[in-house]
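Researcher: Next entry in the queue.
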Amino acid sequence: MTSSSFEPISRLSRAWSYRLLLICALMGTLNGYCQQTSSSLSPEIDRQEMETLLTFLAADAMRGRATGSPELDQAAQYIHQYFQAQGLQAHFQSFAKIDKNALQAQVLIGDRSLDEERWALLSSFPEMRFQAAEACLTIIDGNLTQAEDTWLTFWRECLAQSQHPEMHVQEITAPQLVVVAPHLADFFHNIIKAEVNAQSLVPSPLTALLVVLATPVEAQELYCQLSQPQGLRLHNVIGRLEGQEPAKGSVIFSAHYDHIGILPPNAAGDSIANGADDDASGVVAVMLLAKHFAQQTPKPIRDLYFVAFTAEEVGGYGSRYFTQTITPELVSAGINIEMIGKVSKFGEKSLFLTGFEKSTLGPLLQKALAGSVYQILPDPYPQLKLFYRSDNATLARAGIPAHTLSSVPLDTDTHYHQVTDEVSTLALDNMHQLITAIAKATHGLVQGLDTPSRISRK
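Model: Structure for this entry, 458 residues:
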């Protein structure tokens, strides 16, 4: 009796024991999975290394990292060596940009050479010849107020197409000829010629802009011939981390490493625009993300490209050239990082994404951070059109869901494009948290789990 009563209980106990063992095994498996997932979403970004990289790029010795400067080349070497040290396939993407200061030109009216004091010229091509009949003509005449209005409208349009071509359907392709009446000589010399000569690089997509002090009758016989023996060599720095399944696309992490160089000295005698926030902070983030993903287990599924763009401050030439060399359809997403050294208007551990409504990238990043202490919110400054004011814009114009992450409080920041944009003005602990947040938020993109919608090319 006792034996028969014990047997079912024994069998039942063994059955429950097996179930408990199975549950424990499953929980162990799930716990291991969770730990693995948690580990991959909790990268260790070295805060001290972050500060070391930032201090180098924003040092006075870099003299503001102006486009075309030896110091900018030094910064490029530094970034390249860092990519190599992380095991990335690193290279310089070099290209020539026409420097108008090296132009050699001759302007003729009939068979008479026009004195250089009577013309100003920009060109995107090393050699060009054109006659007045081949150019788009703008005449500046009338009184001074009328002349100012005509020139301002024309010049603004040139610069707008140069800086934000994605906002314009038509690009300037024919040479532009601006004829200024002789009675406006002072306006020509003091304003027009000064503004044209102040352009450090030709505002692409202009093919050529010639402004002459002449009568409309004289201009009909105008002929311009120009040549340039040497262009400006610029360099994007690219590090590639090969994914396990490249066929699933690629992700681009980018920031620009150039800044604005030397400014007039302030009251303290400081003239170096260090560019700590703009955009050494973004470059350092890209460098540390490269290291993080290179060391991550499991290895990334998608190909990852870490790109330091040149010449953003003078027209986005680096990102424009880069975009011409890639197949946009093979790029799943672009994460551009611009100015993350300050606490955003949303508070600490918060980033905003430009052009939030233009693709589903924002919601995907938000989903990846759900339940964490980090947040990514829509751009709080839509009136400033920030989506079109950084290197993401050229990629987006090609249809890539490329957006910029930033934290800069533009309504209160007093250091933007000033000599006071130094490491000492940055919130470094918060910046460290933001880089960690970006690594967490992009995990699904890197592992091929998330794919944002494309951006319309319209």
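Model: The first helix runs from residue 2 to 41.
Researcher: Noted, moving on.
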